[in-house]
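Sequence, please.
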């Protein structure tokens, strides 16, 4: 038993000598636990919707809209009679859903029980938002009928916005899974490779050559991009061929978008490799970036469920834009013009990470 205790004490002493390792052991679990605790505690709130009124205004319709406005799960941004204009607003993702008030809600109380169906058009790519909107509509209908005392039976019929055929839970989850797997594997592989280059002294040999830091970093990026593309293609192929992932948009656009995100992740890995002194710390760095990204990027829960402060932080996480872009292409059938914001965000991510990686290089080049 004494040898085992001695070995155990040696391991503890070895780890406690490195302040960075101690910081990762103590601080990272604390931060990650707090992030997940805040991220998973709520449901989507204040989802923007438009109420489309078919036919004349009636007291029953007015009462329903008032009940809907009182529900904090939705935010009625407009009550419109123009279905075409409202449809354009949901297609541009300005709002999450359209609630259509049927013309059968007549001004005069019916003599017999009247069955009336509300139509709800909601974004099928965001099932949590869709469910919150449907729950709010159902609750408002129930309260409206109870308070009116009229012989009216209300029901809800839902419609998709982006295409035919229902999306499965796997379809909705795969864009996030694809983005996360690529980010984690590319980040881990790249950081390990770069740290090993430092430990083996490989970089030192470059310093005798007539190259500058930008050229050296560009060379590393080109080499690692080859493996990033392979990882991306494998993940996409398995998702589509094996699991039958729905791709309503251009498959080539999906591939190009994923490769751009992979290149940005390589740049981040180069920057992070400056913080790791050994391979053990390199392995810790990848989860330290990947796990908070899971909590705040919309991978597990919609960003709308997060506290406002965390929503602002989510805007600085590259995986947020990767998942949103993949959902737009794969589930909404969007084209290049529909992912402009996501593309711009990823390009900025690539440029900033690469610039930071070059400027953080402490070595001098001959």
């Amino acid at each position: 038993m004494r040898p085992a205790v001695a070995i155990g004490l040696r391991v503890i002493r070895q780890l406690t000598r490195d302040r960075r390792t101690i910081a990762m052991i103590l601080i990272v679990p604390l931060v990650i636990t707090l992030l997940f605790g805040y991220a998973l505690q709520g449901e989507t709130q204040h989802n923007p919707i438009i109420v489309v009124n078919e036919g004349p205004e009636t007291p029953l319709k007015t009462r329903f809209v008032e009940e809907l406005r009182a529900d904090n799960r939705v935010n009625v941004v407009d009550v419109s009679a123009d279905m075409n204009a409202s449809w354009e607003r949901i297609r541009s993702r300005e709002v999450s859903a359209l609630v259509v008030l049927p013309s059968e809600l007549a001004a005069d109380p019916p003599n017999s029980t009247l069955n009336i169906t509300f139509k709800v058009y909601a974004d099928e790519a965001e099932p949590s938002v869709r469910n919150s909107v449907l729950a709010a509509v159902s609750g408002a209908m129930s309260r409206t009928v109870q308070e009116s005392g009229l012989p009216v039976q209300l029901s809800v019929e839902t419609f998709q916005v982006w295409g035919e055929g229902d999306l499965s839970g796997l379809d909705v989850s795969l864009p996030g899974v694809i983005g996360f797997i690529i980010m984690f594997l590319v980040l881990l592989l790249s950081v390990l490779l770069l740290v090993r280059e430092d430990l083996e002294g490989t970089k030192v040999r470059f310093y005798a050559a007539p190259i500058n830091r930008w050229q050296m970093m560009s060379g590393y990026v080109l080499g690692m991009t080859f493996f990033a593309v392979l990882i991306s293609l494998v993940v996409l192929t398995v998702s589509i061929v094996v699991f039958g992932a729905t791709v309503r948009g251009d498959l080539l656009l999906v591939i190009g978008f994923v490769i751009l995100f992979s290149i940005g992740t390589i740049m981040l890995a180069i920057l992070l490799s400056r913080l790791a002194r050994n391979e053990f710390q390199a392995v810790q760095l990848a989860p330290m970036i990947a796990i908070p990204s899971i909590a705040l990027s919309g991978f597990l829960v919609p960003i709308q469920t997060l506290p406002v402060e965390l929503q602002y932080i989510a805007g600085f996480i590259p995986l947020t834009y990767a998942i949103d872009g993949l959902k737009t292409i794969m589930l909404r059938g969007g084209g290049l013009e529909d992912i402009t914001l996501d593309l711009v965000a990823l390009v900025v991510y690539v440029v900033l990470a690469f610039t930071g990686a070059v400027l953080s290089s402490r070595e001098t080049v001959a």
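The two ends are 55 Å apart (CA to CA).
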